[in-house]
Amino acid sequence: MLYYLFDYLAQFNSGFDVFHYLTLRIILSALTALVLSLMLGPIIINYLNNKKLYQSIREDGPKSHITNKSQTPSMGGLIIIISIILSTLLWSDIFNKNIWILAFILISFGMVGFYDDYQKFIHSSSDGISGKKKLALQIIIAALVAYFIFINSVNSIELELMLPFLKNFSLYLGVLFIPWSILVIIGSSNAVNLTDGLDGLAILPCILIAAAFVLFAYVEGNFNISNYLLIPYIPGVSEIAIFSSTIVGAGLGFLWYNSYPAEIFMGDVGSLSLGAVLATIAILLRLEIVYAIMGGVFVVEALSVMVQVTSYKMFGKRVFKMSPIHHHFELKGWPEPKIIVRFWIITFVLVLIALASLKIR
After folding, report:
1. Which positions ≥6 away from 150 have C-beta within 8 Å?
2. What is the structure's pLDDT at 218?
3. Overall number of domains in the chain
4. Is 99 domain-assigned?
5. Distance between terminal CA atoms of the chain?
6. What distances in angstroms separate CA 34 from CA 19, 43, 256, one per listed residue?
7. Do 178 and 187 meet the contact criterion of CB atoms below 8 Å apart?
8. Residue 203 DSSP SS3
9. Cβ neighbourhood burial of 220 (10 Å; 0-12, 13-18, 19+)
10. Is residue 156 part of a domain?
11. For residue 122, how far is the Cα from the chain centroid?
12. Does residue 298 sit within a domain?
């Protein structure tokens, strides 16, 4: 909204034209989201504590979690979602279709996560809504978004699968774009959800990946820069940089309260929505493979669960002491902060590798 306010004021004072610059709006949107999340943090933490809406700990999880985390409030993802939406509305071009796609996916998956968290609270159990029901809701939302993107695509580039580090390779998906996008969104949403098991473990990778998406969106939405780097130019995606920057700001503010030892957890309302919106950004920017590289920690966490379940059902044996894999390292005796920081470092390196694809082609 401020975008249009300053556009109007520029008629009377040309100094307001500075707010049209994407780089300035990226910085201001990130700072706004940061301030909002820092302000909302104590309010929501106190409210959840007063209502005794604490994190539900799985009974078969590490015993230390029952002792140390059972009195920590959950649903902190509300801090992130509110900060992102308000900051985006203030600093983005709200008539850009990509902004509304991302806002819809964030809020919709957040509602599914909220419903799941609420069911855990009222039943005093780590089991929320049934897996089938949750998956069905995720498929419906992801399908609506994928179909909307498909029917509103204006050129073939928006429906092509591209591989990083290769400048002349692309695979036109056509109608297969829809099931592919559904798979990416749901897979990412649940992978981030599985990763969110230790204090700050999931949020910083989300921040780092979102920061990389700021740069990718800026480059792909600028014809001259994208042409120089031999990267496909996609009109209108530059505003995604604003949305991504709000994730960075809101995430940093949330990390202030979620860092070890955590004062609040994001819950499913946060992890499901962040995973879904990051995947949707990747789809809009045609960076699904790049996102898989940056989100390597998420991928490994999800695969560890799949391997564990498959091995136990087929052979009656467990590959890991416990899944997801961060619990495996916990049971091996690694201190929680060491696991968290090492996973952060891995994500940082993977993001740098992905960013290298901007030039190495």
Report:
1. 159, 175, 177, 178, 181
2. 96
3. 1
4. yes
5. 39
6. 19, 15, 10
7. no
8. helix
9. buried
10. yes
11. 27
12. no
Residue entry with tokens 């894999």: 325
CA 110 to chain centre: 11
**Per the omega criterion (within 30 degrees of 0), is the bond before 235 cis?**
no
In the block, residue with structure tokens 């995430």: 251
Q: Which of these, 325, 249, 244, lies nearest to 279 by C-alpha position?
A: 244
Give the type of residue at 163.
L
Residues 218, 284: Cα–Cα separation, whole Å: 13
Over residues 251-265, the pLDDT tens digits come to 999 999 999 999 999
Q: What is the CA radius of gyration of the chain?
A: 20
Strand stretches in the chain, DSSP E: 160-162, 170-172
233 CB burial (10 A radius; 0-12, 13-18, 19+):
middle
Residue 123: alpha-carbon gap to chain centroid? 28
Instruction: Identify which of 206, 251, 269, 260 has the alpha carbon closest to the alpha carbon of residue 53.
Output: 269
pLDDT tens digits for 166-204? Answer: 777 788 999 999 999 999 999 999 999 999 989 999 999
State which amino acid sits at residue 356. A
DSSP state of 73: B
d(CA 68, CA 62): 10
Mean pLDDT of 47-70: 69
Q: Could you tell me if residue 342 is inside a domain?
A: no
170-176 contacts at long range (C-beta below 8 A, 24 or more positions apart) = 170/232, 175/150
Q: What is the rounded CA–CA span in Å between residue 255 and residue 271?
A: 13
- Expressed as residue numbers, the domain containing 236 is 20-163+170-290
- Alpha-carbon 354 to chain mean position: 17
